[in-house]
Amino acid sequence: MSAEQSTGEQEERTAEPDRDPLSQGAPGVPATGRGPGGGEPSLKPYDHPTAGWGAALSVGKVLARTREPVEGPRATLLMNHENKGFDCPGCAWPDDRKGLHLDICENGIKHVTWEMTPKRAGKAFFAEHTVSELETWTDFALEDQGRLVGPLVYDPGSDRYTPISWEDAFAMVGERLRSLDSPDQAAFYTSGRLSNEGSFLYQLWVREFGTNNLPDCSNMCHEASGRALTASIGTGKGTVMLDDWDQAEAVFLLGVNAASNAPRMLTRLAEAHRRGARIVHINPLVEAAAGRTIVPHDFAAMAAFHATPTGSMNVQPRIGGDLALIRGVAKAVLEAAERDPHAIDREFIARHTEAFEEYRRICAETEWAEIEHGSGVGRERIRRLADVYMESRRTIIAWCLGVTQQEHGVDTVREIVNLLLLRGNIGREGAGPCPIRGHSNVQGNRTCGIDHHPKEAFLDRLEEVCGITAPRSPGLDTVRTLEALERGDVKVLIGMGGNFAMAVPDTARAAEALRRCELTVHVSTKLNRSHLVHGREALILPCLGRSERDVRAGTEQGVTVEDSMSMVHLSYGMKRPASPHLVSEPAIICGLARATLPESATPWERYADDYDAVRDTMGEVLDGFEDFNRRVRRPLGFRIAQPARERVFLTGSGKAEFSTADVPDTDPGDGLLTLSTVRSHDQWNTTVYSDDDRYRGLSNLRTAVFMNREDMSDRGLREFDHVDVTSIAKDGRRRTVYGYRAVPYDIPRGCATGYMPEMNALLPLGDFSPQSGQPLMKHMRVEIRRADPSASDPPNK
User: Which of 217, 281, 288, 682 is the least buried, fewest Cβ under 10 Å from its Cβ?
Assistant: First the structure.
């Protein structure tokens, strides 16, 4: 079957959520489903402070559900604690350096108690349920079965997963990989939860095997940030440290839903407001984090119900309008510089930047009408934003996936850097670019070698230290891995964490591609959709969770992670493992590597039992990891040096480079809207805890599409009316999800949002940014119309 044939007809019925979406999944496009509770949908605007007592009440309920009266509360005290604590498996916000004993948040506790559940999915469970039956379950129901307790192999005769020994599982993978005609017929995916040690071992195994096919979640989230920052300032990371947030006089947040996706940021925003800093939220949605907060560990504020503002100004560009908006701010700054020579930092620009005059010219030539049309924001509002920027001596600009998962994500991040360069806001305390990474070690994965297109210098060093011959041809990223699976060019997929089948775009097509594999292997803690969308042969290899003790050869082992601001620190589990048959991720990788490479001189057995030995090797290979074992045992670990923070720019010119991209046209066309996928507050990536979204005021509904009230009126829609949402791909093909509910919300005209992973079904595999390779999960052209009852069976409500 050709790729074109596999995508179906021009009009595809992708999913029908309200045709009983929560009890079964449509073939190939499963519904992610409803958590506990149920009931009719309701919408009530949230007008309370974020965090505070609402979060405390939620945490109390979450801890009660774990049925761990001792270990649950103990976990909250040890999470993100420097003294033998474990790193939160949720977001990548840095640990507080002020000695706080409760550097935690509601969603972090949800995440860790999710893996501390007393429920178990063991031999009896899999004997009772076939894979075909499990495919009809919701994603919530699958994960709600609890922790996996031992390795499993798919038995096609019974259509069940059955127990297998670790030795046999490793041997099965090794035999299959060695039988391939080329190492490039295998791909090795990584989620953001894998430790630094695990990441290094994983890429070492894969490269010694002979391929650079290392797709990872960065390909779908912050690839644009890395490419843009490397081009502009010579490093793929931000220059900001957590201490800088205490010195900034202005903070701009673009495409960030802090209260749900990085809740510990709220503490910094509240402190910034108290000292008089300006905090600007730039987002199509006005999120709760732009309002007020009560910091839970501020006991006086909690007792007095005293909330602190976390925002000074809201700017709502249309989806995809961020580049035009930032160009408008830069244009206003440069216009001011014609009257006031201090409006820009001329000395910094002359000494440390390249192509300023060309950038000044393109700003002058970009008409205000074009900026207003592209951004959806009026000129005076943009000028006011420029005033805030010019009144600040130290400005941080932070951004998340609302910026990067766009067609022009790389150009937009580079435009952010342009604006910072105008006033010398790089290499200055309290200032700089700050990408907000979403998962706990997604940045560390890339630092430690998970990269489908590695640098030659890294491969040279890896060969020299580890004695291997590393492949030099670029490997496959996530999108191209899916395309290769579909063609049959990749026959084995190994996934280290995550829920690959649901995280990727075009979920129906991805499911078909995965089923063509000769072998799929997933290292996981719980059952998820990826285990059911399997190859001809399939393995599930359950691993220890971040909160669980890891003892190897009689010695307690710790792993390291790198946070969003380049701090590296140790993490030690504190809880007895969910099963004596669970194995750590580093040990699983070493077992797979030895079975694949039986003649390898790499000391895989030693690495499996002694993570200090792994770190010694990493210290020889990785820049910034010298003397790794000693430095990481300092309080709170160490920070990887960022040359650009010292105004050392490792670009071709040796200077920070201004970019000169055109402002893109963000108009989706007559009658169409631009749709962005988002997460709910009660969700972490593809894991959905319930159907509630407290901060957006929505209850008992995930098959929702948030719309501007006037756009709803134009279509004759009222609150909770059933609608069909159709995406229009670049090649003209259409995909539709049926029976969603229209929800009025404060969002610019012409824009809409809905939850991932459900709406990933709308995004065609071929719709990715040519700049970054990222799927356009926040930049889809869609048509929304009242549901057609004749299209299928009537809705079940």
Answer: 682
Q: Where are the beta strands (DSSP E) in 486-639?
A: 492-496, 519-524, 537-542, 551-552, 555-556, 559-562, 567-571, 638-639
Assign residue 40 the CATH number of its domain.
2.40.40.20
Q: Is residue 370 part of a domain?
A: yes
**Cα–Cα distance, 8 to 512 (Å, whole number):** 12
* Cβ count near 537 (within 10 Å): 17
180, 204: one domain: yes
Contact 674, 668 (CB under 8 A): yes
In degrees and rounded to multiples of 5, residue 417 shows phi and psi of -65, -40
- How large is the greatest C-alpha to C-alpha distance in the chain, in angstroms? 79
- Are 173 and 594 within 8 A, CB to CB? no
Buried b vs exposed e over 313-345: b needs ≥16 C-beta within 10 Å? Answer: bbbbbbbbbbbbbbbbbbbbbbebbeeeeebbb
User: Rounded CA gap, 113 and 101, in Å?
Assistant: 19
Instruction: Quickly state the pLDDT bin for 258 (edges 50, 70, 90).
Output: confident
- Find out whether 165 and 153 touch, Cβ atoms under 8 Å: no
Tell me which residue of 18, 117, 91 sits closest to 400, measured CA to CA. Answer: 91
Is 247:430 a contact under the CB 8 Å cutoff?
A: yes
What total number of domains does the chain contain? 3
102 in a domain, yes or no? no
CATH number at residue 406: 3.40.228.10
CA–CA separation, 492 and 474 (whole Å): 18
pTM above 0.85, yes or no: yes
Angle at alpha carbon of residue 456, lines to 451 and 460, rounded to 5°: 105
CATH of the domain at 170: 3.40.50.740
DSSP code string of 593-615: HHHH-TT--S-HHHHHH-HHHHH
What distances in angstroms separate CA 733 from CA 92, 359, 392, 405, 766, one per listed residue? Answer: 37, 38, 47, 20, 11
Interacting residues of 269 by C-beta distance below 8 A, sequence separation 6+: 251, 258, 279, 289, 293, 310, 311
Counted residue by residue, the chain has a size of 797
pLDDT above 70 for 100:
no
Regarding whether 406 and 295 lie in a shared domain, the answer is yes
> What are the tens digits of pLDDT across the range 46-72?
988 887 667 667 766 766 666 665 566
Helix (H) or strand (E) holding 51: strand 50-51
Is 149 found in the same domain as 13?
no
**Structural domain includes residue 61:** no
The residue to which tokens 């290899």 are assigned: 541
Instruction: Quick: pLDDT tens for 570-591.
Output: 989 888 999 999 999 999 999 9
Q: Say what angle helices 322-337 and 368-375 make with each other, to 10 degrees.
A: 150
Q: Distance (Å, rounded) from C-alpha 361 to C-alpha 556?
A: 60
Q: Which two tokens stand for residue 577?
A: 């493992």
Per-residue pLDDT at 554:
94
Backbone φ and ψ for 240, nearest 5 degrees, come out as -80, 140
Q: Which of 287, 285, 236, 232 is nearest to 265 (CA)?
A: 287
- N- to C-terminal Cα separation, the chain: 38
Residue of 268, 274, 262 lying closest to 246 (CA atoms): 268
| 71 inside domain | no
The residue among 473, 406, 496, 480 whose CA lies nearest residue 223 is: 406
Point out the domain boundary residue: 561, 582, 603. Answer: 582
Closest CA to 60 of 109, 114, 112: 109
Residue of 221, 217, 238 whose CA lies nearest to 94:
238
Q: Domain of residue 408: give its range.
A: 240-435
